[in-house]
Amino acid sequence: MSFTPSAAFRYTLMRLGIFVGSFLAIWALVYFRVLPSGLGSSNLFWVMLLALVVSAPLSWVVLRKQRDALAVEVAEKVDRAKERLAANQSQEDGV
């Protein structure tokens, strides 16, 4: 029995991985004073905000195939649910 993760699970993990990688890279740049640090105790928030701004467009470009696979998986599930609903409605009409 092999475990094959769903497209949503893979996409989420990859997106999280890109965010964590961006966070670590930006944290290193702030640590070595290549980028400015936040004011007072806001350094963590500053690094997280920069990582979010960097990882979002990066994910949009890099994860295109995974996003398309996720869209196909969701569309198939919606179609199956519509078919089941239509079948249930036709059974109720036959009574």
Automatic annotation (TrEMBL):
InterPro entries the record matches: DUF4229, MFS_trans_sf
SUPFAM superfamilies, per database record: MFS general substrate transporter (SSF103473)
Pfam families (UniProt xref): DUF4229
Domain of life: Bacteria
Stretches that traverse the bilayer: 12-32, 44-63
Keywords of this entry: Membrane, Transmembrane, Transmembrane helix
Designated name of the protein: Membrane protein
